[in-house]
Amino acid sequence: MIIKHLGNITSPLLICGGAYGNLEALEALAAFQLGHGIGDDHVIHTGDAVAYCADAEASVQFMAQRGWTAIKGNVEEQIASRSDDCGCGFEEGSVCDAASQRWYAHAVATLSQSGNAWMAGLPSHLCFTMAGVRVQVVHGSVSRTNRFMFASLPDEEFDAELAAANADLVVAGHTGIPFTRVIGNRCWHNSGALGMPANDATQRVWVSVLSPTDDGIAIKHHALSCDAQAAASKIRAAALPEGYADGLLSGLWPSPDILPERERAGTGRRLTLDGTTVSFPKFTAIAAQ
What residues contact residue 162 under an 8 Å CB cut-off, 6+ apart? Predict the structure, then answer.
């Protein structure tokens, strides 16, 4: 495992993850970035640059050419190791498992040598400090790249992962649904997915901004609009699973296979996180290194 250390960050960071080969969502993110005055060196992608959508190569090049900081998700790991599946953690024989075989093959077939090299060269985790808070960026969990850490999991499961990170704040991806959860004197944050709606019956995709404050870090969720129709049309033109094209337009996932009971019950319920700010203070329980 390669962990990249970014040092002390003193200005806002734009967090995104799960671009999923959705070039239109990346373009919307770049416009958001420009509008908020955030430089390319302050954008972090938490993995799975390619997946359900059709623009695998264009999406990788979009990020690589801008020099955005990124880590490997399970998809990058699997492609780099020339594995024959995405390693997403879908249950064998499930709807998601069957669909993943088609989009994964498409991504492998369309990625260039330079695109593959960019993904293979990414670190597994990032570490930095911000306003006295120690932060670790992972894809799924600290212990396993493809672990789904949903907001509804018990405190003890987050406690174990946070202890493994030995950090105040863990920033993660993989689940596709944004949340911020403070557990005791630590915090787990997921910016949601950039490349696919959050199963809330809207076409919105999700990012977040971490900003240093006098007392710690302000974490703000943001919903973005992108050209879902264009991205869906590309999925259909590439003969990829129709469910993901429909999902971009309806805002509903083609299958709830991976969702725990609470998240499944939220299907089709509009998320109200946009603009929500969670202030996470710096604590003395873990001394910054």
Answer: 142, 170, 183, 186, 188
Nearest partner of 247 among 62, 25, 57, judged by Cα? 25
Question: Is the pLDDT confidence value at 284 over 50?
Answer: no
**DSSP run (H or E) holding 15:** strand 13-16
Confirm whether pTM is higher than 0.85: yes
- Contact predicate 207/220, CB 8 Å: no
**φ and ψ of 128, to 5 deg:** -160, 170
Domains of the chain: 3-281 (3.60.21.10)
With H, G, I as helix, E, B as strand and everything else as coil, classify residue 177.
coil
Query: Tokens 């710096």 label which residue?
Result: 282
b/e sequence 150-175, b meaning 16+ C-beta within 10 Å:
bbeeeeeebeebbeebebbbbbbbbb
d(CA 194, CA 226) in angstroms, rounded, equals 10
Token pair, residue 119, equals 């993904």
What letter represents residue 243's amino acid? G
> Which amino acid would we find at residue 77?
E
**Contact between 118 and 64 (Cβ < 8 Å):** yes
- Rounded to whole angstroms, the Cα distance separating 229 from 233 reads 6
Residue 289 confidence (pLDDT) above 60: no
The CA-based dihedral angle spanning residues 78, 120, 138, 201, taken in that order and rounded to the nearest 10 degrees = -60
pLDDT tens-digit map of 208-226:
999 999 989 999 999 999 9
Q: How far apart are CA 259 and CA 257, in angstroms?
A: 6
Rounded CA gap, 161 and 142, in Å? 6
Q: Which two tokens stand for residue 215?
A: 């007392």
If you count them, how many residues does the chain have? 289
One-letter amino acid at 207 equals V
Classified as helix, coil or strand, 13 is strand
Report pLDDT digits (tens) over 130-167. Answer: 999 999 999 999 999 999 999 999 999 999 999 999 79
